[in-house]
Amino acid sequence: MIITATLNGKSREYEVIVEPLEMKGFTLEPANVIGGSTVLGNIDLNGPAPAGGVVVTLSSTNSAVTIPTSVTIPGGNGNFTVPITTIGPSVPTYARITATLGGRSITSGLNIVNEFKVTINPLNVTGGVNATGTITVTANGSPTGLVFSLTTDSKDALVNSSVKIPAGQTSATFTIKTSPVAKAVYPVIGITFDQVFQAIEMSVNPPVLESIGLSSSSVTGGQAATGTLTLNAPAPVGGLVVKLGSNNAAVTVAATVTIPAGKTSATFAVSTAAVTATTTAIVTAKTGSVSQSANITVTQ
Q: For the domain bounded by 209-299, which CATH number is listed?
């Protein structure tokens, strides 16, 4: 369109380009839902609608979606939101929803899944040992996969921020990385899809004494031996104190030994005294309620 301006007999022409009203965007929020949820379809125009409004037609490829066949964007508005309902919760599927204005159509995809199931194995774990979480859906019609958000309320059980069930698959696993702990803690792992949240509490326990070993089961009185303590997982920050004892005066050990943080074993000295007759002693080690023992014979 040409506009001409004239002053004192002089004219100047200006070209004004008037673009037709078009739809520039159509998005769904959220794009992943549990069946039965409501989705918002956001329609954006490249300018305000004219007086009297403009009609945008809508369609869906899937009967799991209930959507009006058209909506009218009121005059003066450049965007409009239409509610879209889904059926469920037992309808795992994928729908393509299309908005059309004039000769332009924009399609957005919607994942609709059934209620998901989450398991953690093992639920009771020793700190420093990882656990595995599994998310399962009955079916997965998404061509791009289903993304679940993950959270934890404890620094002693860490997870990634999300996990994805790939297109065409019905399950995915994620790792829960636990840290060595001095006492039992109970982290809660949260899993979210759409606005559906599941929480599972697990136990992260301190390491326990797995075994006690002696470098020799028989020594001559006055000779020394070496004991080795082994845990089932790394010791926590600050180390783990193990109580030691002997039931025979001919064999002596320190009252305690500390297994350093991050380590699974430590050694200790076993001293013996001269004896007039062969005798056997029991060396014991204890952490919490768990005890281990080993025998050592002292000879003349």
A: 2.60.40.2310
Which two structure tokens, joined as six digits, stand for 239? 């180390």
117-205 domain in CATH 1.10.275.10? no
- Which tens digits make up the pLDDT trace of 222-281? 999 999 999 999 999 999 999 999 999 999 999 999 999 999 999 999 999 999 999 999
**Which of 258, 265, 252, 259 is closest to 296 using CA atoms?**
252
Domain ranges of the chain: 24-113, 117-205, 209-299
- Residue range 24-113 in CATH 2.60.40.10: yes
Query: Strand 203-205 vs strand 124-126: parallel, antiparallel, or unpaired?
Result: parallel
| Cα 154-195-24 angle, rounded to 5 deg | 125
For the segment 137-171, what is each residue's pLDDT rounded down to a tens digit? 877 767 788 899 999 999 999 999 999 999 888 89
